[in-house]
Amino acid sequence: MEVATRLTWMQEKKLQNYFGEKQFSLLYKASVHGFSTDRLLQICSNQGPTLTVIYSEDQIVGAYMQKDYGEGNYLIAVFVFQETTITECKVGPFKLPMLFDKNVDGNLEVSIHLKEKTMYFNKKAMEKLGLSQIYISFQDCEVFRCEDLLDKRKMSGLTELKESLLCAIRNYIPYGGLVHKVRILLLGPVGAGKSSFFNSVRSIFRGHVTNQALVGSDPTGTSEKYRTYFIKDGKDNNTLPFILCDTMGLSEKEGLDMDDIPYILEGHFPDKYQFNSLKLRPKGIGNHTGCPLLKDRIHCVAFVFSANSVGQLSHEMVEKIKRIRRELIKSDVVHVVLLTHVDTLDLITKGDLIDVYKCVPVKLQLEAVHRKLGFALSDIFVVSNYTSEWELEPVIDVLILSALKEMLRAADDFLENFPLEKTVVNALNGEDAAAAAAAAKSLQSCVTP
Description:
The structure is a single chain. The chain is an alpha+beta fold. The protein is built from twelve helices and 15 strands. The strands form two sheets. Strands 1, 2, 3, 4, 5, 6, 7 and 8 form an eight-stranded antiparallel β-sheet that branches. Helix 9 (about 360-375) links the parallel strand 14 and strand 15. Helix 5 (about 150-170) packs parallel to helix 10 (about 395-415) and helix 11 (about 420-430) runs antiparallel to helix 12 (about 435-445). The longest helix has 24 residues, at about 395-415.
């Protein structure tokens, strides 16, 4: 049977962050393994840094030990954890096993006596920790092994996963060969991180942090143009099989006009198209026939929301997003959500991004998006953009590449469901022999018994 800690998620996160972004693994629990110093030392020796947690009736106290139980004399960080506040003082130096001896002679500043279920303090330590008496009776004692959240083993695993994702995306071929590159449209409120996401994707494939799309904090949005971004792979300088499309941010009164959405989805707007209040729209792209080709259409839409503000979206904004979703459903365009800025949520560290979907603050934000906007939880992907970093970090890269891979799958769903007769006509009109042949072959396979 798995032994569980008495710490709440919030308490554990507070302690993890306080002692340097650690990951805790429960080694010993007195109520399970016995209130025995010998048993504790047997289980917890040679485990590296450890955290001992004592549970009294009304507070949590404990000690953080930066070295193994079997090593020499050094200082120990003793702490009191009350509500959200941690008070600490250094004691020692002395050998770690002495921490679990009763303080008979009064020479030791702090000691834990498991058999008596009592923790003792001398007067100096008591005053530093803000305690009212020199001893605390407790109900349980736990000892955790403390490891860095991003240790070498985990970093190696992240690097391998990143390379696997890079390979999958580089070798991606849109469904049926119907188009050479899929188009992914980024939609979201002003400041949600659309342009930062593009810059982050570009940085990963370039191999260093870089910026191309303008990022800023103008409340009306930094772009009034429709932009289509091709991304070159720094490995061979070839363009990748997807195009990221960026447009004006959504807002309650200004920003992207709802009437523009169908035109964007159908592929009427060329790169650098200037949005304006006159609603003058181009007839088409390239040949100006008014009938954009399949390759010009949007194949997937990604809504981009900031984890810090998605819960505060106004009623007007929520209704606008729901209207856009209805238009997407009408056009059979698959859409997903990118939740950005998760690394800025309270108590979240970069180490937490390894298994970010298990973090309570992130779970709460995912549920807020689901509840407020109606997106399925399986369609919401967490990312952390490059905004202030100087170097690439595998944990950030993996989140971004994982989300991008899911968007390519969504684009494939659109292409697979696109009417085949329309695909043939589109390809022939565009004189794309390869796409026409692929579409004709798919159509033939559907009608041949």
